[in-house]
Amino acid sequence: MQSDDKPVSGQQNPNSPSFLDLLDQMPPPPATGPDKDSGTNLAQLRAAWNASWEQGGFLHGRWEELRQVPQAGWHGMANWIKAVLILTGMCAVIILLDTAGDIFDAALNRLADAVPATQVGTSATGEFWGVVDNPIRTYIAQHTAGLPVSGAAIYIFWQATGLFGLIGGFIGATGARLTWTCWGAATASVVWTTTPADGRTVATAIAVLAWTIASTAALRGLSLRPFININNFPPPAPAFQPQIEIRPEIHIPAPAPAPDDDAPDNVHPFQR
Predict the structure, then answer these.
(1) Among the four 97, 183, 200, 255, which has the fewest Cβ within 10 Å?
(2) Predicted confidence (pLDDT) per residue in 25-68, tens digit
(3) CA 131 → CA 88, 190, 257, distances in Å?
């Protein structure tokens, strides 16, 4: 019989009382004196805390779910543990991307300082990002005049779509990888369309190269080689080996004895 504190297939037991329910069900202990209200509340809180850690309590059930994570695996753990792990992973990826951007910006600035003749602005990363970002902003401003949504909202949606494709593709979601592919192709097309003819080729090349560099994370583990499952094919036929000689054995029955001329014709062997 399944107890109340053990999850079944990663789902929370609906019969397990919550901490607030236990707090409401606790009868108030008798108290006297001017501080009886504060003492009553503290006693109820302590009693509810102790009850939630008993067998079948809310906190006891959550602790059992945490304890069973190594044996349950990803598919068997509770849903709230999956949500916490996913949010923690997304925050870690965002922090890593922000740190990597700062490191890349510092490296480009050092490279720009080493070659003073090529210095045009104050931030090399901002210049490269402006090659892709400015055409996007211009294209959105030119083609959102008759829409019920503002250009700023569409620009934020464009950024959120790229971030979703990058993070979801890194996790391995197929839909996120398709979104990342379409997002990169649309971005390169907009840069080619909006950039003036003199710098159109260079701007599109920068956009495509930046998108392919980021695709190493978004398309991580994706292979173009076909996967062949050998279990679906019948077993191979045995190879013919001519060196093995099979000689059939032919048994020739012995000839019947010749009839005796002296024996009478009316004599026959006894048959059962």
Answers:
(1) 255
(2) 555 555 555 455 566 778 888 888 888 888 888 888 888 888 88
(3) 33, 12, 112
Which is nearest to 206 in space by CA: 119, 125, 132, 112? Answer: 132
Do 207 and 191 form a contact (C-beta atoms < 8 A)?
Answer: yes
Give CA–CA dist 105/126, Å, rounded: 8
Per-residue pLDDT tens for 17-28? 555 565 555 555
CB neighbour list of residue 28: distance below 8 Å, 6 or more residues apart: 40, 43, 44
Residues 143, 147: Cα–Cα separation, whole Å:
8
Mean of the pLDDT values across residues 131-135?
87
**Are 32 and 21 spatial neighbours (Cβ–Cβ below 8 Å)?**
no
Residue written as token pair 């996967």: 227
Q: What is the mean pLDDT of residues 79-86?
A: 88
pTM assigned to the model: 0.43
Contacts of 7 by beta carbon, 8 Å cutoff, 6+ apart = 13, 61, 64, 65, 68, 72, 78
Count CB-CB contacts under 10 A for residue 90.
Answer: 15
